[in-house]
Amino acid sequence: MAERETASSVPPKCGPYISSVTSRSMNLVIRGVVLFLIGVFLALVLNLLQIQRNVTLFPPDVIASIFSSAWWVPPCCGTASAVIGLLYPCIDRHLGEPHKFKREWSSVMRCVAVFVGINHASAKVDFDNNIQLSLTLAALSIGLWWTFDRSRSGFGLGVGIAFLATVVTQLLVYNGVYQYTSPDFLYVRSWLPCIFFAGGITMGNIGRQLAMYECKVTAENLIKNEESKNMFLYRKKKTPRF
Amino acid sequence: MTLTEKLRDKISRAFYSHGLFCASYPIPIILFTGFCILACCYPLLKLPLPGTGPVEYTTPVKDYSPPPSDPDREQRDQSEQPDWYVGAPVAYIQQIFVKSTISPWHKNLLAVDVFRAPLSRVFQLVEEIRNHVLRDSSGTKSLEEVCLQVTDLLPGLKKLRNLLPEHGCLLLSPGNFWQNDQERFSADPDIIKTIYQHEPKTLQTSATLKDLLFGVPGKYSGVNLYTRKRMVSYTITLVFQSYHSRYLSSLRARLKLLHPSPNCSLREENLVHVHFKEEIGIAELIPLVTTYIILFAYIYFSTRKIDMVKSKWGLALAAVVTVLSSLLMSVGLCTLFGLTPTLNGGEIFPYLVVVIGLENVLVLTKSVVSTPVDLEVKLRIAQGLSNESWSIMKNMATELGIILIGYFTLVPAIQEFCLFAVVGLVSDFFLQMLFFTTVLSIDIRRMELADLNKRLPPEVCLHPAKPAGRGHRYERQLAMRPSTPHTITLQPSSFRNLRLPKRLRVIYFLARTRLAQRLIMVGTVIWIGILVYTDPAGLRTYLTAQVTEQSPLGEAGLPPMPVPGGVLPAGDPKSTFSIFPPDASKLAENQTLPWESPDIQEPQDHLEGAPHSSLLDIGPGPEVTWGPEDEELWRKLSFRHWPSLFSYYNITLAKKYISLLPVIPVTLYLNPQEVQHQQEAQHYWPLKPSGSGTAQGEDQGQAFEGPSRTQVHGDVTLYKVAALGLASGILLVLLLFCLYRVLCPKNYGQHGASHGRRKRGDLPCDDYGYSPPETEIIPLVLRGHLMDIECLASDGMLLVSCCLVGQIRVWDAQTGDCLTLIPKQGLRRDSGGVFDSQESWEQLSDGGKGSLEELGDNAQLRRLLGPPQPPLFGDQPDLTCLIDTNFSEQPQPPPLEPSQPEPRHRAGCRRPHDPPGYDFSRLVQRVYQEEGLAPIPLPALGPPSPVPSFHGPEDEACSHLEKGSPVPTWTPDTESSVWSLDLQGNLIVAGRSNGRLEVWDAIEGTLRCSNEEVSSGITALVFLNKRIVAARLNGSLDFFSLETRTVLSHLQFRGTPGRGSAPSSPVYSNSDTVVCHLTHTVSCAHQKPITALKAAAGRVVTGSQDHTLRTMVLASGGQDGAICLWDVLTGSRVSHMFAHRGDVTSLTCTTSCIISSGLDDLISIWDRSTGIKLYSIQQDMGCGASLGVISDNLLVTGGQGCVSFWDLNYGDLLQTVYLGKSSEAQPARQILVLDNAAIVCNFGSELSLVYVPSVLEKLD
């Protein structure tokens, strides 16, 4: 929704510069696709991490079980990550406070690694009880936010995403569409919100980093237009006689 | 001072002294650190090698009892038991090894009889075992009670359901192929097919069903039509839940009693425990690989930020080594203090690296590199360290805090992780402070040394007499240089080697020496060697087997040559040695009394008969022998044999162990009679001994059908392996290609503008997103122009600039003084010329001449010699007092003026006393005249104000002068602005928009001559050795020649015949008369305005808007954004490159590359020989054409109030220099590089003269 808004708000501002519009929307599409792919990939990998714990230790065909269990889960995750990754920079822009904290790819990579680590911990580490697991993961997620994001908008958005995603999962599980092997809290795993929160922060981080390229491109376009106009005038001035 | 500040101060001071210390003693410190690392890593030797092969441990059978599940540590350390030898094993495995043969061999036996009869005996044996019951004082124990009861097979294994036991004892034997049913077996027409039907078609490393049931490796089983050994061996595998020694020994004794093995020398005293490592399945591998990929991406993105050092790779390596060895140290330290790592090292390793991070190292590097370069290395290191000390400490404290919080989660795994991380962090800090800092100091020292070495030779060449120093920059060089900067000498292509970037050179070096491959190969060989040697099925056992085989006992392992049956008649079957007839087992009650020790003596009595009887046999069957290699035949099985067997029942052996009991040997000798009655049912081809004749040839084909099929099978496998190898090779090549693309900094050709554009206001950065430390230099600002400066020209000594209003200023390129001002003629006509006093004029000319003459002298001396030159610093406000004094003398000159013999055109002749703000003051002079005579400095308007009242008398003088001066040419329209400029010696050639060509004296500011024959504007000019080439707007080229005459003359220029005679311009001169001839005209060189003109080596290159380049063209840029590369001599187009989205605005060539800039503000660097785009630089808006080449590998570009220095070969941004605060808003429109490493930047209406010593020192 937010993307469509921005996309539709751009053309009148840019006026006749069609090229800039196309490149802008193209950029949006490219970003979306990249985020979608990242989301799908992460979903598959993390799903693999999760099923490692509960499936039989020697599953006859792991790959088949990934794709057969719920084929729609990775695409959903991909879509969600695309939306989140586009939403973060968009909100940044609307709030007028671009995210400047540690804006570099190495930091993004670190963030992703920590996110995978949190998932790993939730899947592999043996906790005494679920409250301990949930608390630990919550602390880790907050730590992730503080280390890599530190923006209030990011926190708010992350909490919102976590809440929304948990509710959606709850509904899905309640209706029997999806199932957990060992639900511990009202049909779902209690640590799910933490994972969703961390995932939201991570995808937002990636999205912001990708958006930096877009900012560069649009700035370049604007500048170029301005400048070609200048150059046009200059040339007119320079060759008056001819 | 608050506590924090105090702390901060202290930390910073401590870091400073530490940095000094590190940089002072680099070698001892590195040695010490290396020793520390090694010492800390020493405990790691105890840890097992990573690998997934099983580990074994042997205990004697006697007094064996399962190890306690919770052993106390001391005891284990004493007994050297492995860590995993805790608790009961998953299972005890008892293999009953059956070797069976038909003895004696009868000639009319069929090939299939070799294994048919022996296999048939398995059913009896299994029965015997199943029914074996131990009866002793404590009651009875049957197999069902002690064996491992298994449940369902995994649901995915439906096809094995009939073959593997379910819901009962796990007992495996070849009989399982026929569901342990003798009837089925005898009804089976093709045993081989039954056995092989479940063999996998593809290559598989894990155990096959045949191996599982036979319990021996396939080639040992002897179930094969082509066997010559005629001996079949298989095992019956029993799996026990618990260890019941008496039951086992009774079973052993009974089987030995029933089927005694003669000459059996198996030692049956050891129990082997095999521990299996954790299995890494694909499900675990994918996340693992993902985390590693993320880790590598992180390392890559981090280390590429290292810049401005001697060796990027070296420092990146040092950074990685720091982190890795800190991790190793942490593991080693933890092991030393008794904590054994229980986590999977490979899994948590990436997370540990990410947690520890490379950030501190990078911050440290950046901080050190950005310290002033002229400091000593020690001080630079110390300063860089102390600058970042606070942030490093803060970060470390934060991370420690977070990890400590993690420690209190009280989850063992997380606690262990945190412990490792804490120790790793601390050791990482230690290494950073000692190891990395020292490496950094060495690197920076090397860089400075390299700089010194590289800078020395050119200095020696240029100034042999001068002491090496920076003084040479201030010396004037010859204004006339023998070679023009545009001369391009094309070397023979063999000499033309592009200086490769360091990355590429490293890669080439690796490729040339094949260092990586060799290292990897050596490593792999060592690794494989270790694995092969230690592997249970590996070399060690093989070697022992070899050794024992050489002993005479093992000789019997070789089967005797089959003797043709036809030669020797079959022996009497009755005489065949057979201990028990086939139905003897039925006689036995399947019960044994508990024997404490099985009586082996009795079977050994029978043994003696065996060789005897075989001697009697005329066609001897193979003798069954038991060697030491049979003792542990299971070692030859795939090491996944047991795990896969148990995995079928969903029992994991990962991180657990099983115990293998000593095998029970069973020998079966079958007599041919028994065999023959079985054979009647089927018609089988008789076995043809290989040595016999050609009889029964037609059967032969059938007989070898089986083996040939297996051969075909083997062939298919071979092809598959080959295909697989090929595919993986291709994959590897692709992977390497991708890796190369990642590593290769320059993506040739496709580098779009979308990537490198930097945001306005952002720090400038290169393609890698790295922005080097920017510095700020206060440039020498040359102010004075009112409007934007349009053209710039320089010959190294003098700098000529012209603004839009047509005002030409001549500057001293060294000091930035405004030497001469040539005002715009239109204005001049209004306001009049400015005439100075004769004294001042003489002074000026003295100064000017002096400056030309004293080429070799140093600057200070020159300044001393030129006393009137202090006001050269015209842009300094305090000089207004000098102007004041001048002004007071003003009344004197006017009388002198008219008395001058010739009215000279000293239109622009301004003393340097008159500050550059003159023009401006003229514009507003009316106002000033009204206000008064006081000199009013106008700081707000930039240049200090000249003396406004100065003009009062001058106006009169001028008007007076103009009346008397016959200047017919000075009636052009006011719009005639200067479009092009060139400078040589002290002559300035200016091309105006109205087509006038003017030659000015740079020092005196006098118009030497002018030519106005053609009214088309001059767009480009080249001034070369008394020749002037002017390119005009209408596309024509005019060639002028200058002549110098000492006599006063009045010359009429001939016009070109085609154009008719234009009004000639008389030239007046007092001493030297410069005459400008139009020698010839190329009237239609181009159809459109000529935009670019270059002359070199007697040739002229022009570029025009009509996309054509006439005459001799080297490289040309057109309006369509394409660049053409032309051969100068032949005129053919060498290459054509599509470069820019807009027009190509300028082109520069160096010996190796072409630099083009376009309207799209993109500077592209092309390889000259191949025409490949190396990379491109995105410029700030309006700075598209502002570029200059300082040396062959240093490029200067302009930006918003700054200039950036790029390494041409690498495309790396070296440094960005901000030119003061004032010019921040202005983009540098033009850049002109002078010889003496000064750079002139055109910031709108003002020029900046920049000396960049620091950058030049960084040059390599």
From TrEMBL, chain A:
It is a multi-pass membrane protein. One of its GO terms (biological process) is inner ear morphogenesis. This is Insulin-induced gene protein. Pfam families: INSIG. Its main location: endoplasmic reticulum. Belongs to the INSIG family. InterPro entries: INSIG_fam. Keywords: Cholesterol metabolism, Endoplasmic reticulum, Lipid metabolism, Lipid-binding, Membrane, Steroid metabolism, Sterol metabolism, Transmembrane, Transmembrane helix. It comes from the Eukaryota. Interacts with SCAP; interaction is direct and only takes place in the presence of sterols; it prevents interaction between SCAP and the coat protein complex II (COPII). Associates with the SCAP-SREBP complex (composed of SCAP and SREBF1/SREBP1 or SREBF2/SREBP2); association is mediated via its interaction with SCAP and only takes place in the presence of sterols. Interacts with RNF139. Interacts with RNF145. GO terms for molecular function: oxysterol binding; protein sequestering activity. One of its GO terms (cellular component) is SREBP-SCAP-Insig complex. It comes from Vombatus ursinus (Common wombat). It is found in: Endoplasmic reticulum membrane. Mediates feedback control of cholesterol synthesis. The chain crosses the membrane at residues 28-49, 69-88, 131-148, 155-174, 186-206.
Automatic annotation (TrEMBL), chain B:
Residues 70-79, 953-963 have a biased composition (Basic and acidic residues). It is a multi-pass membrane protein. InterPro entries: Beta-prop_SCAP, HMGCR/SNAP/NPC1-like_SSD, SCAP, SCAP_N, SSD, WD40/YVTN_repeat-like_dom_sf, WD40_repeat_dom_sf, WD40_rpt. It comes from the Eukaryota. One of its GO terms (biological process) is regulation of cholesterol biosynthetic process. Residues 58-80, 596-622, 685-708, 884-917, 953-972 are annotated as: Disordered. Escort protein required for cholesterol as well as lipid homeostasis. Regulates export of the SCAP-SREBP complex from the endoplasmic reticulum to the Golgi upon low cholesterol, thereby regulating the processing of sterol regulatory element-binding proteins (SREBPs) SREBF1/SREBP1 and SREBF2/SREBP2. At high sterol concentrations, formation of a ternary complex with INSIG (INSIG1 or INSIG2) leads to mask the ER export signal in SCAP, promoting retention of the complex in the endoplasmic reticulum. This is Sterol regulatory element-binding protein cleavage-activating protein. The lineage of its organism: Eukaryota, Metazoa, Chordata, Craniata, Vertebrata. The gene is SCAP.
